[in-house]
Design goal:
Helix content: 40-55%
Number of domains: 2
Number of strands: 10
CATH superfamily of the largest domain: RNA polymerase II/Efflux pump adaptor protein, barrel-sandwich hybrid domain
Strand content: 15-25%
Order of helices and strands: HEEEEEHHEEEEEH
CATH topology of the largest domain: OB fold (Dihydrolipoamide Acetyltransferase, E2P)
Shape: elongated
Largest sheet: 4 strands, antiparallel
Length: 239
């Protein structure tokens, strides 16, 4: 409620005072209304959502891309070590093989015969050695009784030494024959991937480094990666 006080001696001035008071009252009434409206409008606006994350240390691996080629660490040309006819092939082109796997079989019959012959020679040589041992022991007994001459004893000793040499030679021949027989079974020298079959069943192959390549094996693990890179990049990467 607004109280106005008007003096009787100045009617015109009273009008001014009343107007001034009324205007002041209007100002005092309107001003609080606007002041309270601004905070209400601000409170009505929603908060803007934001995403936050804690900073943590972490190892980062740097990398580069290069164009290059893959190369096998080991590459073996499989060749026959004995001559003969190929009986069978035991691998697939492009297939994986393990070291020691059977790849190709060569006709073993001639080499089995050679082993049998060497075994016979070995048995004969061993029999002659046994006989020489017996004769030498008998000669020593007779020599102790002065029944035979010293030259006869020496001959028996020489015969035994010769028999020993014959046994050693026969043993070596037998071992060689057995090795050749084993070579008729061609096995993988390394683990890897087999290439193309170069010689098929029924063909005759020779022995040695000049013989035909049967197939090629390349190792599959590990392998080399060859590529070109700038010298400063390599130095920075290896630092």
């Amino acid at each position: 409620m607004i109280m106005l006080k008007i003096k009787n001696w100045a009617p015109w001035g009273a009008g001014i005072s009343v107007a001034a008071l009324i205007a002041g009252a209007s100002l005092s009434i309107d001003t609080p209304t606007g002041a309270h409206a601004a905070p209400a409008e601000a409170a009505a606006q929603p908060a803007v959502p934001v995403t936050v994350a804690a900073v943590q240390p972490k190892n980062v691996t740097t990398w580069q891309e290069f164009s290059g080629r893959l190369e096998a660490v080991d590459r073996v040309e499989v060749r026959p070590r004995v001559a003969g006819a190929i009986l069978s092939v035991h691998f697939r082109e492009g297939g994986l093989v393990k070291e020691g796997d059977l790849l190709v079989s060569i006709d073993p019959e001639p080499y089995k015969a050679a082993v049998a012959q060497a075994e016979g020679q070995m048995a004969s040589a061993q029999a002659r050695l046994d006989y020489a041992d017996t004769e030498l022991e008998r000669g020593k007994t007779l020599a102790s009784r002065n029944t035979i001459s010293q030259s006869d004893l020496s001959q028996r000793q020489s015969a035994r030494a010769e028999a020993i040499a014959n046994v050693q030679a026969a043993r070596a021949t037998l071992k060689s024959a057995q090795i050749n027989l084993d070579y008729t079974q061609i096995r993988a020298p390394i683990s890897g991937r087999a290439g193309r079959i170069e010689v098929t069943v029924g063909n005759l192959v020779a022995a040695g480094s000049a013989s035909a390549v049967l197939t090629t094996l390349v190792s599959s693990s590990p392998i080399y990666a060859s590529f070109d890179a700038a010298e400063e990049l390599v130095a920075r990467t290896l630092a």
